[in-house]
Amino acid sequence: xxxxxxxxxxxxxxxxxxxxxxxxxxxxxxxxxxxxxxxxxxxxxxxxxxxxxxxxxxxxxxxxxxxxxxxxxxxxxxxxxxxxxxxxxxxxxxxxxxxxxxxxxxxxxxxxxxxxxxxxxxxxxxxxxxxxxxxxxx
Length: 138
What we know:
Layout: E1 23-26, E2 48-55, E3 65-70, E4 75-79, E5 83-85, E6 94-97, E7 106-112, E8 116-120, E9 126-130, E10 134-136
Antiparallel strand pairs: 1-2, 1-5, 2-3, 3-4, 6-7, 6-10, 7-8, 8-9
């Protein structure tokens, strides 16, 4: 399921300082998702990569792209509209908060519930974020 994040979420200035290292998944490249044309025959669908950089063309006509470091150590350039955040998998994961009081900051997962996580920056204050509002950070 594609998250409700804006399709150009990766160019949000709030994430500028910490976007390098975000873990993302390629989604919607088969041409079967609403509003998303097929890209590269869908051959990278569901693969995950570590964000290395984002090129914001500032245009809706020239694709904004991201360079990913894939599992096989290869580099892949992907239009950002096909990238969704990889959620945390366990307590103590480092994540970038995509919403809430820590938006754009690297925080630590302290507790995982069914559909949300308790995160903190320094254990003095906490925030509750749904899984689609966090991006695993590596």
